[in-house]
Structure formats: structure tokens, C-alpha cells
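hey can u check if this looks right to u? its 426 residues, i copy pasted from the old doc so theres a chance i mangled smth
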Amino acid sequence: MAWLLFLGPFFFLSYGFANWWTATFSHPGTVVFAWESSIPFVAWTIIPYWSIDLFYGLSFLLCRSRDEVDCHARRLCSAQVIAITCFMAFPLRFSFEKPPLDDSIYSAFYTALAGFDKPFNQAPSLHIALLLILWVRYRAVSHGVLRHLADFWSFLILLSVLTTYQHHFIDVPTGALLGLFCLWLWPDQGSTPFSCWRFSTSPERLRLGTRYLAGATLCTVFALFGDGHGWLLWLLWPATALLLVALNYFGFGPDGFQKCEGRFAISTRWILAPYIAMAWLNSRIWTIRCPHPVEIVDGIWLGRMPGRKDMRDGRFESLLDLTAELSAPSGDWTVHYLPWLDLVTPDATQLRMAAQHIESLRSQGPLLVCCALGFSRSASAVAAWLLLGRHAASVDDAVTMIAAHRPQCVLGMKHRKTLEKLQLTM
């Protein structure tokens, strides 16, 4: 109730102020595609459009703990603040005229809406951002028919922002991106990513972060100053994904990918979708000639991140996932997740922890130790286990044993030095 007493007035006051502010501009901009003129005006969709207010208030009753209430409220508040800031910094105007409603039974709803909602607050659509946050909250507590009903009504609300002539298309994906960002910013489990920020001094991480930042900048430049037809605006999606990955290398670390039990949170899965897709494709291209895992010693297998088909044959009882950027397949096996950033040499502490996990999991049956390719991160973890378990007398012996079964492995000088440092602590 305390959150609602704050968020209700805050919504209308801040939204109204943004409307007033944007209206002071003599020529607010418009971003509209030619094909949008064929979108029909559907008067009755004002009902689902308005219904988000009811869903907004009731959503707090679906929270079952103080932490859930606070997390949900922070998401809604963050979406409001960011959207209002965008409305004021980049004012846009809706350019279509609504057809006359005469004495339609829906005209009262449109009249009430026009009383406080002017055609200026456009991208990102706050309606869509809030809808996504609310949809996640309702899906978390609904099952069966109720979940399908929540999905269906949410879809109607999404369509209604276009068919009530409240938003242009560009507002929808930008609003969805804002909603996903707020879900990522305030995760269901664990602390907010910014509380985990530690600026890295690792040359590897800084170099890779800079490359991803350059990619994000390039995508942004093409999106904003590209062909002028608008379709390049979709590059803002990979630009956002690459920016977030860059920040993970600079300071958030593997926790910025927000994997839980080997699976991505819904926010990360969608925000990083372009990057995740390319990472998966890259893993398949590089391993096209060696797609299958190999057994290094009894019950310890080494390979790339498997697909569901690879795990379906029941060969493995457990999986040690060392990736931060790929999602592990779900199934009837045990998944342990130790996230390591791609192309960053693990330190001795990480290697020791991985070796301990391997030793613990091997008692359950055949174990697959994997990373994206099965060439470096997973190979160094198996090498650490070989050393700590005294299955190999030296680092050279461990590397030779692995290379004999998987010659594509890449364990360079930095990996060897870290393994030697680990061996000295035995």
C-alpha cells in the first residue's frame, strides 16, 4: 500500500509534467514508417489499453514477500523515471489523427484519456515497458488456463497501443527494451548488478570490453545515421546487447549475464539475444569438425556446450557449465554453473573451485565439463583437476593428456602459468 500511495501520484505527476514540457517545443519530431498508415484504428481496443491501470494496482497483491514487493516496485519506478527522462530529452509526437467516434460507447474512454495523455510521450512507450514488467509478475503466479489468459490479454494490451492511435511502431520495441532493462536492473534473485560493480584491472577484460564497446558504438552510428529508411534502427538492439557485454567485461563480471542454474533470466535472454545468438553460432562454426565430447579419463568428458539432442541419449549424469554467455540445456541431469568470461584466462582460485566441482560431480556418474567450444576454459578446468587429483605429475603432462584426446585445445602460456601457480599450492 505504501508503494502504491507513492507510485500512483508519481505516475500522473511526472507523466503530466513530461507532457507539458514536450508541448512547449514548437516542432517535436516524429519517427513513423510508411507502412504504419495501414494500421487500422480499432475503437474497442481502448478497453485493454485502459485495463493496464487495473493490472498495475492488483500486481502488488501477487507479491508474496517484502522482497518481491520492493523488487516489483523498483522496476515500475525505474521504468517511469527512465521513460520520462527520454520523453523530455528526445521529444516525439504522434502524427495520426483519430477518426471521429460520434456517440460510440468507447468515446468516453478516449475523452478521459485525452484529458491527461497528450500525443507527445512516445519513445520508449511507457505503456509497453510497464506491460512487460506486469506480465512477468502475473506469469510468475499463474498456471494453466490463467497463464494463457494473462498472455492473451497482455498481447491485446500490446496491440492496443497501435490500434488506439496512441503510439507509432518505434515506441513498441524501445518500450520493450526499457522494460527488459528494468527487469535486468532489479533481478528476482540476488542483488542489483550495479551493487556488484568492480572496475576490472585485467588487461584481457579491458581489451575485450573495449572491442565490444566499439561494436556497440558502430551499431549505434549505423542505426542513427544509416540509410534513412528506418530499418537500420533495429541495430539499436545489438548495440544495447554489445554495450551490456562490454560493461560485464569492464566491471559487472559474469554476474552481469544473470544466469541461474545454467539458464538465463528472461530479461537477459531477450536483451542479449543478438549477442547470445552470435555466440552460439560461433561455437558451432568453430567446432564443426569436432562436435562431440571426448573422454579424458574414466567418466570425465570434455566438450562444447551441448544441445538438448546431445544430452538426450543419457550418456551424462551431470554437466559443469563454465560459460557466462550460453544457456545450458535443461533435462534430467545435474547442472553446476561456474561462470567464466569468454577469452579471459581463469585465475588459480577459479581453477581450484572448478577442480573441486569436478571431483564432487564425478561420483554421480559420467560428467561433461564444457564451455562454448570445449577448447580453453573447460580444458583448463580439467587440467586443474588432473593436477590436484594427482592424475598428472606436471602441467605439461596434464596438457599432453588433454591434447591427446582433444588436439584443438588452446592452453597458452597464461593458462600454463596459472596452472603452475595452482600446482605450487597443492
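The beta strands are 259-260, 263-264, 294-297, 300-304, 318-323, 334-340, 367-371.
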